[in-house]
Amino acid sequence: MEPDNAAARGRFEELFDAHYAELTRFATRRVGPDAAGDVVSGTFLVAWRRFAELPAENPRAWLYATARHVIANELRGRARRDRLSAKAEVSATATVEDHAGQVGEHLRVRAVLAGLSQADQEILRLTEWEGLDVAEAALVLGCSRTAVKVRLHRARRRFAARLLATEEPGAHATSRLPMPSLVAEGNSIS
Questions:
Q1: Does residue 96 have a pLDDT over 80?
Q2: Which GO BP terms apply (predicted)?
Q3: Which domains does the chain have, with CATH numbers?
Q4: Cβ–Cβ under 8 Å, residues 51 and 12
């Protein structure tokens, strides 16, 4: 409908006045009072846009059919919101693992590693963090496997001693070298 067509605008206002209250009651029974206003507004918006297609004989039935479609859309939207809300509630109530202790341990390991000689740091990084075996580390370092085994044993011993020295009194003693999982993937130890 053209907005400047005064006659059509007058007919639409008559249609609105004649059917607004009953469509509001219809929508309220279907979707409740909170959404009923939106349904009726949506129904009359469609009627305004398609006013030329409205049957002159019985516009009431057309309005009810349109209201049913708007109600169906409202109910689908409500179901989507409810599903999303339920997912959000599950996510909000899910327990989140506390990684604060791991962060502290990670920082402690980095500090201890930084305090070692460059040779000790290199052998530990290659074997413990990079996952190279003794033969691969020997190739990287350009020495024999026996030399790598000796260097690795000594570096681990020095690392463990320094790590134990940094533990707070009363803390559980560290029984073995921290594993690479203490270092976040993509973060280098340097």
A1: no
A2: DNA-templated transcription initiation
A3: 6-93 (1.10.1740.10), 100-182 (1.10.10.10)
A4: yes
